[in-house]
Amino acid sequence: MNNTRTVETASSQAINHSTVSKSSLWADIMSLIKIGIINSNLITTFAGFWLALHFTGSSFIAHWPTFLLTMVGTAFIIAGGCILNNWYDRDIDPVMSRTQTRATVTGTISLSNVKTMGIVVSIVGFLLLLFTTVEAALLGAFGWFVYVILYTMWSKRRYTINTVIGSFSGAVPPLIGWAAIEPGLRLEALILFLIMFIWQPPHFLALAMKKKDEYKAANIPMLPVVHGFGITKRQMVVYVACLLPLPIYLASLGITFMIISGLLTAGWLVLALAGFKMKDDIKWATWMFLYSLLYLTILFPLMVIVTLPY
Asked: Which of 40, 57, 108, 146 is the most exposed, having the fewest neighbouring CB atoms within 10 Å of its CB?
């Protein structure tokens, strides 16, 4: 009887350990691919895809296979870039609290496996996009190159403009979505690119202000670390102000979009200017960071909502 209980206990522990291991491995993979970044980029990819259908008068049902290839291909090529970013940054991630639990730091997944995973996932993403249009695949490759080579391996540890350089990569997903339907693109597609390109610096500079001490400890020359909060705030105001006129070029989306997008941008600009009056810089940076997330999650879905067929 006692032996039976011992066997049952050991068996139960083994099952629990297996479950925890699988759960831990899944969490590690989600951390490596930066699932939050993928999700936010897929929102803009979908918006680009949808608006391309809208402006070309095409049917979503007729293009659903292209839609699946576009979304999965984009997710994979972004995931591959993020994995390689983690692999390359394995020496500085232990210094920063938000990256200390990554598999490349804890060692739960070997570095060689991480690098191989990053390369394979990137290639799969590129090949999937090739089944849509060559232009979409090339745009995906461009975004990957900027993020992995120009940002991660070249500028991130050298220049304060690393955020701007990385913004080229983050602005590519809506173009991928659009090019999968209309390879030639058009002005509206370029406006989506500009919105994403300009949105990123104030978003990431707000984060850099919040994590200034960690970036300093890791020797990453973020703008707040090198030049202080004053210059950082001024640059953030300039970027947000540059977003104000862009909705004008999307006037064909209707008056509802124009009003909401205008108010949304104006509200962000007011908050940005308030940074010169607030005494608590970190609190202000937190508000700016959260507002930037709100801005993105409202603006791009709004583009889809206002173009839904009646």
From this structure: 57
- Closest alpha carbon to 55 in 182, 200, 192, 235: 182
How confident is the model at residue 272, as a pLDDT? 97
Structure tokens at 278: 């607030």
The pLDDT of residue 31 is 84
Written as one letter, the residue type at 273 is L
Question: How many C-beta atoms surround the C-beta of residue 6 within 10 A?
Answer: 10
The pLDDT of residue 22: 60
pTM score over 0.85: yes
Spatial neighbors of 225 by CB under 8 A, at least 6 apart, are 208, 212, 215, 216
Averaged in consecutive runs of 10 residues, what is the pLDDT profile of the chain (310 residues)? 41 40 75 90 98 96 97 98 94 77 80 94 98 98 98 95 96 98 95 98 96 92 95 97 94 96 97 95 97 96 94
pLDDT attached to residue 14: 38
pLDDT in the model for residue 239: 98
DSSP annotation string for the chain: -HHHHHHHHHHHHHHHHHHHHHHHHHHHHHHHHTHHHHHHHHHHHHHHHHHHHHHHT--TGGGHHHHHHHHHHHHHHHHHHHHHHHHHGGGTGGGSGGGTTSHHHH-SS-HHHHHHHHHHHHHHHHHHHHTT-HHHHHHHHHHHHIIIIIIIIIITTT-TTHHHHHHHHHTSHHHHHHHTT-TT--HHHHHHHHHHHHHHHHHHHHHHHHTHHHHHHTT---HHHHHHHHHHHHHHHHHHHHHTTGGGGGGGG-HHHHHHHHHHHHHHHHHHHHTTT-S-HHHHHHHHHHHHHHHHHHHHHHHHHTT---
Q: What's the CA gap between 221 and 158, in Å, rounded?
A: 7
